[in-house]
Protein backbone atom coordinates (compact mmCIF):
# COMPACT_ATOMS: atom_id res chain seq x y z
CA UNK A 1 0.00 0.00 0.00
CA UNK A 2 3.02 2.35 0.16
CA UNK A 3 3.26 2.73 -3.58
CA UNK A 4 -0.24 4.14 -4.18
CA UNK A 5 0.51 6.82 -1.59
CA UNK A 6 3.73 7.78 -3.38
CA UNK A 7 2.00 7.94 -6.73
CA UNK A 8 -0.89 9.96 -5.31
CA UNK A 9 1.60 12.39 -3.75
CA UNK A 10 3.42 12.78 -7.08
CA UNK A 11 0.15 13.42 -8.94
CA UNK A 12 -1.01 15.95 -6.35
CA UNK A 13 2.29 17.78 -6.47
CA UNK A 14 2.26 17.87 -10.27
CA UNK A 15 -1.37 18.89 -10.72
CA UNK A 16 -2.40 20.55 -7.47
CA UNK A 17 0.21 23.25 -7.72
CA UNK A 18 -0.62 24.23 -11.31
CA UNK A 19 -2.89 27.13 -10.40
CA UNK A 20 -0.48 28.44 -7.77
CA UNK A 21 2.37 28.17 -10.27
CA UNK A 22 0.42 30.15 -12.87
CA UNK A 23 -0.32 32.85 -10.28
CA UNK A 24 3.35 32.96 -9.26
CA UNK A 25 4.57 33.18 -12.87
CA UNK A 26 1.91 35.81 -13.65
CA UNK A 27 3.25 37.99 -10.82
CA UNK A 28 6.79 37.34 -12.02
CA UNK A 29 5.90 38.69 -15.49
CA UNK A 30 3.04 41.01 -14.59
CA UNK A 31 3.87 43.62 -17.26
CA UNK A 32 3.88 40.98 -20.01
CA UNK A 33 0.64 39.44 -18.70
CA UNK A 34 -1.07 42.85 -18.50
CA UNK A 35 -0.23 43.52 -22.16
CA UNK A 36 -1.79 40.27 -23.39
CA UNK A 37 -5.13 40.40 -25.22
CA UNK A 38 -8.05 39.44 -22.96
CA UNK A 39 -8.56 36.11 -24.75
CA UNK A 40 -4.92 35.21 -24.14
CA UNK A 41 -5.20 36.19 -20.46
CA UNK A 42 -8.21 33.89 -20.01
CA UNK A 43 -6.39 31.00 -21.73
CA UNK A 44 -3.23 31.57 -19.64
CA UNK A 45 -5.29 31.50 -16.43
CA UNK A 46 -6.63 28.09 -17.51
CA UNK A 47 -3.19 26.78 -18.51
CA UNK A 48 -4.21 26.66 -22.19
CA UNK A 49 -2.42 27.95 -25.29
CA UNK A 50 -3.74 29.79 -28.32
CA UNK A 51 -2.15 30.32 -31.70
CA UNK A 52 -0.31 33.64 -31.79
CA UNK A 53 0.57 33.74 -28.07
CA UNK A 54 3.94 35.15 -27.07
CA UNK A 55 6.71 33.26 -25.30
CA UNK A 56 5.82 35.18 -22.13
CA UNK A 57 2.21 33.95 -22.31
CA UNK A 58 3.36 30.34 -22.76
CA UNK A 59 5.85 30.68 -19.91
CA UNK A 60 3.09 31.94 -17.60
CA UNK A 61 0.64 29.19 -18.68
CA UNK A 62 3.02 26.21 -18.80
CA UNK A 63 6.19 27.29 -17.04
CA UNK A 64 9.83 26.92 -17.99
CA UNK A 65 10.49 24.27 -20.63
CA UNK A 66 12.77 21.32 -19.91
CA UNK A 67 14.54 21.79 -23.22
CA UNK A 68 14.67 24.34 -26.03
CA UNK A 69 15.94 24.29 -29.60
CA UNK A 70 15.98 26.80 -32.42
CA UNK A 71 16.43 26.88 -36.15
CA UNK A 72 16.22 30.21 -37.93
CA UNK A 73 13.11 32.03 -36.69
CA UNK A 74 11.58 28.81 -35.30
CA UNK A 75 11.96 27.96 -31.61
CA UNK A 76 10.71 24.77 -29.98
CA UNK A 77 10.03 24.33 -26.25
CA UNK A 78 9.79 20.80 -24.85
CA UNK A 79 8.26 19.86 -21.52
CA UNK A 80 9.20 16.53 -19.96
CA UNK A 81 7.49 15.01 -16.92
CA UNK A 82 8.18 11.95 -14.81
CA UNK A 83 5.91 8.99 -15.32
CA UNK A 84 5.82 6.17 -12.80
CA UNK A 85 5.32 2.49 -13.43
CA UNK A 86 5.35 -0.42 -11.04
CA UNK A 87 6.88 -3.72 -12.04
CA UNK A 88 6.41 -6.99 -10.23
CA UNK A 89 9.29 -9.43 -9.80
CA UNK A 90 9.06 -12.98 -8.54
CA UNK A 91 12.19 -14.59 -7.14
CA UNK A 92 12.73 -18.11 -5.90
CA UNK A 93 15.63 -18.93 -3.58
CA UNK A 94 17.16 -22.25 -4.59
CA UNK A 95 20.20 -23.97 -3.17
CA UNK A 96 21.37 -26.97 -1.18
CA UNK A 97 18.67 -27.94 1.29
CA UNK A 98 16.69 -24.82 0.39
CA UNK A 99 13.32 -25.25 -1.18
CA UNK A 100 12.24 -22.48 -3.48
CA UNK A 101 9.49 -20.34 -2.05
CA UNK A 102 8.31 -17.72 -4.54
CA UNK A 103 8.61 -14.20 -3.22
CA UNK A 104 6.97 -11.31 -5.03
CA UNK A 105 8.51 -7.87 -4.87
CA UNK A 106 7.31 -4.67 -6.49
CA UNK A 107 9.54 -1.88 -7.71
CA UNK A 108 8.42 1.60 -8.72
CA UNK A 109 10.30 2.97 -11.73
CA UNK A 110 10.23 6.49 -13.11
CA UNK A 111 11.01 7.66 -16.60
CA UNK A 112 11.02 11.00 -18.35
CA UNK A 113 8.19 11.42 -20.87
CA UNK A 114 7.72 14.23 -23.38
CA UNK A 115 4.34 15.59 -22.28
CA UNK A 116 4.08 18.96 -24.12
CA UNK A 117 5.81 20.83 -26.93
CA UNK A 118 5.34 24.30 -28.39
CA UNK A 119 6.65 25.63 -31.69
CA UNK A 120 7.11 29.39 -32.04
CA UNK A 121 7.63 31.17 -35.33
CA UNK A 122 9.05 34.68 -34.98
CA UNK A 123 8.26 34.59 -31.25
CA UNK A 124 4.58 33.61 -31.59
CA UNK A 125 2.93 30.21 -31.04
CA UNK A 126 2.44 28.41 -34.33
CA UNK A 127 1.51 24.96 -32.96
CA UNK A 128 1.63 22.86 -29.80
CA UNK A 129 1.01 19.33 -28.58
CA UNK A 130 -0.07 18.01 -25.22
CA UNK A 131 -0.27 14.35 -24.27
CA UNK A 132 -2.31 13.63 -21.15
CA UNK A 133 -0.76 11.37 -18.51
CA UNK A 134 -1.62 7.68 -18.65
CA UNK A 135 -4.49 6.59 -16.49
CA UNK A 136 -3.16 5.86 -13.03
CA UNK A 137 -3.10 2.22 -12.10
CA UNK A 138 -3.85 0.67 -8.75
CA UNK A 139 -0.42 -0.48 -7.58
CA UNK A 140 -1.41 -2.93 -4.88
Distance from N terminus to C terminus (CA atoms, Å) equals 6 Å
In the residues, how many domains can be counted? Answer: 1
- Binned, the helix content reads 25-40%
Number of helices: 5
The count of β-strands is 4
Structural class: alpha+beta
Q: Could you tell me the mean pLDDT?
A: 84
Strand content: 35-45%
Written as H for each helix and E for each strand, in order along the chain, the element string is HHHHHEEEE
As a whole number of angstroms, the C-alpha radius of gyration is 22 Å
Ranges where pLDDT stays below 50 over 5 or more residues in a row are 11-17
The description of the largest β-sheet is: 4 strands, antiparallel
What characteristic shape results from the CA principal axes?
elongated
Looking across the biggest beta sheet, what order are the strands in?
A: 1-2-3-4
Amino acid sequence: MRHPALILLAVLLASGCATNSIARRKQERLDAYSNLPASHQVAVEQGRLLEGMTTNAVYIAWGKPSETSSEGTTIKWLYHEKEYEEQKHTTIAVGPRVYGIPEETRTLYSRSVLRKSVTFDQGLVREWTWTPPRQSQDFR
